[in-house]
Specification:
heterotrimer, A mainly alpha (about 250), B alpha/beta (about 260), C mainly alpha (about 260), A: about 250 residues, mainly alpha, MetI-like fold, 2 domains, about 0% strand, B: about 260 residues, alpha/beta, 7 helices, 10 strands, about 35% helix, about 25% strand
Chain lengths: ~250, ~260, ~260
């Protein structure tokens, strides 16, 4: 266990070292900055209230987008999954829409929702909704018929069946899709932010790029990257905690 | 207060690959109140289908089933309890919650649920396992809980669909002995589906031997021995005779079933 | 146990067709009646006209070549790098335990956040997009290659060795076929990720390419033209998806 961890730390250290050496002595400082300078620049960068606000706004956008993705995703998944007719009709359509590279309609989102947070939220949500929908639908479709037969034989009403039998599967599906949903929602929000360079993160990446300010650019990106990793880990742990009985069924 | 079951001229077919697959062909039988009977037959003979029709989970194409004096038109949770073959316990709930939920479905008032659940668990000897999750239990234990859940419903009729099929032989024997003791105390009317000859002889008063698909009642074999039956019954001459009789009746049906089994 | 009432496929098919027809009709009706500004939503006729115009535009070939060329290079780099890295990591349990979690964590970062540094480093030319696409595609290939090779049933390996297979034969005849489905899935995911990320890169900062055309049309408020380009790209994506599915269906009839 310790051996693995130390190997990982060592690998990261080696990469940082290569980065440091290459940036210091081999590459033009306009294009890349060594980690020593970058890490020092991080707190200074975030002392700037505008930068902090831009990053903060992005994460609020992420939270809202994710919430919308979950609520809408489950809301659509329920009728699609519960009825065989709606499933056969709607599911292929959902898959078809899923196959569209959403990046191509990003300008439409900006056109319809404006340059501010709403377009980022909408674009993020439109990404995150698919893993949620697909996983919840799959969960509902995988309800074992014997549980339904058993509940019916004991006199369960339709409502009781949904509450006591379908709901656990919905939750299981939700947790199964949650990590991917978080990942792509973040992607959607980041894409939209970078596309719109008039404010927010996109503004600063554009500015630092134009000014050949590699240090601050890398500082900003490093923080975003680290936050993404932390976010992913958090969701992964949540999924591990609550996904118990589904794994036991396998 | 046990009630009887009567099945009249039941016929049923399933849709399979476009054609109608007849699984039950003019099946009739009666079960007297308080009796324990087995439906014994080869795979695919329709015995599970028959059980589901009796319990109201399935509506047959033609024929009628009566439980007591009432015609069966759908599920009757107040009169009929089911024990299923595969594990039908909800894996996301504890043993206790599984029992309580069953009572909730049946419409038992919340105040009475705990007492009934506790008694049922005690009857199957699983009181210590109330807080466990199904995946923490062995196969035999899970089936005890399945039985407890049905017992808690306090129905007059108990329908059991190959409850021990997924268990190893030793567990089956133990559970069979316990079941015999338990059921003789409750006085319920019980119909059990099985493909184990030994089980049928050990547990039942009468055995309905079915043919291969389409299923018909080929013969009715009686086991005249009072309940509860002790383990030494299994080595008695009577046991072996009845078992031999069943084997003779079934052997051709089993061969026929293997030949016509869909690929 | 209980026979399910079969929902006829024809019924659901009819609903789907009716749905699409209704959407198309609504689109036409709403735009023809001038209820929405054509700057927001151009009508289907205008879009069709634009598609026609684009198809005849001299720059189309250049843009397609630019985008597809960038894609081809990026994808090739990702495949070679991903397969190699993935295979090497999969050969030893220790390597897998060390690097698989690291790769999985890195994959969680939306690679697009690194794009500004690529622009800084490579400029707005194709190289920045190649770097983006290659990096995006690298992870699913590497991760799936690791997964594919590590899940090969050890009994298969034992059986092959007992029959005298050397390392090369083992690789060719046992490991690669066994790992293939999972690796192939990774390559498919990577294909889509690579294509989408290159389009994204072109939209954010580029001088040429299909993504650039889409973004530019959007910024110049030539919405019908933008719709036209988007439709072309989407149709191409559908065609590709359909083609791959058809290929898969033919290759693995038992699947």
């Amino acid at each position: 266990m310790m051996k693995v961890f130390s190997a990982q730390v060592a690998s990261i250290a080696v990469l940082l070292l290569i980065w440091e050496v290459a940036a210091r002595w081999f590459i033009d400082p306009q294009f890349i900055s060594p980690p020593s300078k970058v890490f020092v620049a991080i707190p200074k960068l975030f002392a700037d209230p505008q930068v902090a606000r831009a990053v903060g706004t992005s994460f609020i956008e992420l939270a809202v987008a994710f919430a919308i993705a979950v609520v809408l995703g489950v809301a659509i998944a329920l009728p699609v999954g519960l009825s065989t007719l709606t499933f056969k009709s709607a599911f292929p359509v959902i898959l078809l829409i899923y196959a569209i590279p959403q990046i191509t309609i990003l300008p439409l989102f900006v056109l319809y929702f404006g340059l501010g947070p709403p377009s980022k939220i909408a674009f993020g949500a439109s990404h995150g909704i698919f893993p949620i929908m697909l996983n919840v639908i799959a969960g509902i479709r995988s309800v074992r018929p014997i549980y339904l037969a058993c509940a019916r034989s004991m006199g369960a009403s339709w409502l009781q069946i949904v509450r006591r039998i379908v709901l656990p599967y919905v939750l299981a599906g939700l947790f199964a899709g949650m990590r991917l949903a978080m990942s792509v929602t973040l992607l959607g929000v980041m894409l939209a932010e970078l596309y719109v360079s008039t404010a927010g993160i996109g503004y600063f990446t554009q500015r630092f790029s134009n000014e050949f300010d590699a240090t601050n650019l890398l500082a900003l990106i490093t923080v975003l990257a680290i936050m993404a990793v932390i976010l992913n880990e958090t969701v992964r742990r949540l999924e591990a905690r609550f996904g118990r009985w589904r794994r036991a069924q396998r | 207060m046990a009630i009887g079951i009567s099945v009249d001229h039941l016929t049923h077919a399933f849709a399979h690959n476009g054609a109608a697959l007849r699984v039950l062909d003019d099946v009739s039988l009666t079960v007297t109140p308080g009796e324990m009977v087995c439906l014994l037959g080869p795979s695919g003979c329709g015995k599970s289908t028959l059980l589901n029709v009796i319990g109201g989970l399935l509506k047959a194409d033609s024929g009628e089933v009566r439980i007591g004096d009432a015609a069966v038109r759908g599920v009757m949770p107040q009169r009929v309890g089911f024990v299923f073959q595969e594990n039908a316990l909800f894996p996301w709930s504890t043993v206790w919650e599984n029992l309580i939920v069953g009572l909730e479905f049946q419409g038992v008032p919340p105040a009475e649920r705990a007492a009934r659940a506790a008694r049922a668990l005690e009857a199957v000897g699983m009181s210590d396992f109330a807080k466990f999750y199904p995946d923490q239990l062995s196969g035999g234990m899970k089936q005890r809980i399945g039985l407890a859940r049905a017992l808690a419903l306090q129905t007059e009729v108990l329908l059991m669909d190959e409850p021990f099929a997924a268990l190893d032989e030793q567990t089956r024997m133990i559970l069979g002995e316990d079941l015999s003791v338990l059921l003789s105390e409750t006085g319920k009317t019980i119909v059990m589906v099985t493909h184990s000859l030994s089980e049928a002889v050990f547990l039942s008063d009468r055995i309905f031997v079915m043919t291969a698909r389409p299923g018909r009642i080929k013969a009715i074999v009686e086991v005249k021995r009072e309940h509860p039956r002790r383990p030494d019954f299994m080595t008695s001459t009577q046991f072996n005779d009845v078992r031999g009789e069943l084997y003779t009746l079934l052997h051709d049906e089993m061969r026929a079933a293997a030949a016509i089994a869909p690929a | 146990m209980t026979a399910q009432p079969l929902v006829r496929d024809s019924r659901s098919r009819a609903i789907q067709i009716a749905f699409f027809a209704a959407v198309l009709a609504a689109w036409y009706a709403v735009t023809a009646a001038h209820r929405i500004s054509p700057l927001f939503l151009p009508g289907p006729v205008q879009v069709a006209q634009q598609i026609g115009r684009i198809a005849h535009a001299p720059t189309l070939a250049l843009d397609i070549a630019y985008t597809m060329g960038t894609f081809a290079i990026a994808y090739t780099i990702a495949v070679l790098g991903g397969l190699a890295a993935g295979y090497i990591v999969s050969t030893r349990r220790f390597l897998t335990r060390v690097y698989e979690p690291l790769l999985a964590s890195l994959y969680a970062i939306p690679i697009v956040v690194f794009f500004p540094t690529f622009i800084l480093f490579f400029g707005t030319g194709p190289n920045s997009k190649i770097a983006l696409g290659a990096l995006y595609a690298f992870f699913p290939i590497a991760l799936n290659t690791i997964a594919g090779f590590t899940q090969v049933d050890s009994r298969l390996v034992a059986a092959a060795r007992s029959m005298g297979a050397n390392d090369a034969l083992l690789l060719r005849r046992v490991l690669i076929p066994a790992a293939f489905p999972i690796v192939a899935t990774g390559m498919r995911i990577a294909f889509i990720a690579c294509f989408a990320s290159i389009l994204a890169g072109e939209m954010i900062a580029s001088d040429h390419g299909l993504g650039h055309q889409i973004a530019q049309a959007g910024q110049m408020m030539e919405i019908a033209k933008m719709f036209g380009y988007v439709t072309l790209v989407v149709l191409a994506a559908f065609a590709f998806n359909f083609g791959v599915s058809a290929l898969e269906a033919r290759r693995r009839p038992t699947a």
